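Handout, page 2. Input:
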Amino acid sequence: MPLRGIISRLGAVATPVLYHIEVSHYNEKARWALDYKGVPHRRKAPMPVMHMAWATAMTRGKGKTFPILRLDGETIGDSTAIIEALEREYPEPPLYPDDPDDRRRALGLEEFFDEELAPHLRRAAFAVVTRDPGSFAWIAAPRAGRALHTALKGSARMMGPLVRARYGINEETATEGWAKTKAAFDRLESEIGPSGYLVGDRFTVADLTAAALFFPLVRPPESEHLTPGRLPAGFVQMRDEMAGRPGWEWVREMYRRHRGTSSAVEA
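Output:
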């Protein structure tokens, strides 16, 4: 293990801190990697609607969203870079395969689901959720008290269009987003091997990425951050259309087998 990793585990270096958005699938990817490796860490969630300014300040303009991990004095943005750093500092249990060909394949699948699933599923889902005030409020602040939830619900008519503009959501991109989500299920199902995993015979970054990025749609019960409250009818319809697919059941199985318990600690 690298020296910095040993020092960190001995407690001489500050506990890693993950700055995250609770309902985000990219953030779920980073949380899962930390939990899978059993890395004690603290979690901080930004105030609703303030995450872009917070992320921009933390990264000195290099990024504008979360997750961001503070690790051994470094500020690491992007879920893929976070997993890469964790593999260096906390190599056991590994998420990268040892075999070079398997590693290339696993990283290629990670990139595919990062680029061809995650932003498109977000557009398809937010196109519906941002038009439902109650759901919008829960997405913005899933652990909010009644007063804040009521305030956010009241602001949905104003904030919904801003969120849609932020993510480039319109009728065309929402339709494309749903088509891309279906195509990602097709790709997932074509990649599942005889072992039940995407690469080789064990859980890797490819499996974690695919399962984590589908989590807002599949909503496995093992996830810590399922939004409470009623789901909008359009989103329920999307879920009903996909439920029962082999890929849907695969995501649920990955959560059952490997999501485990949180390694987050109190501040």
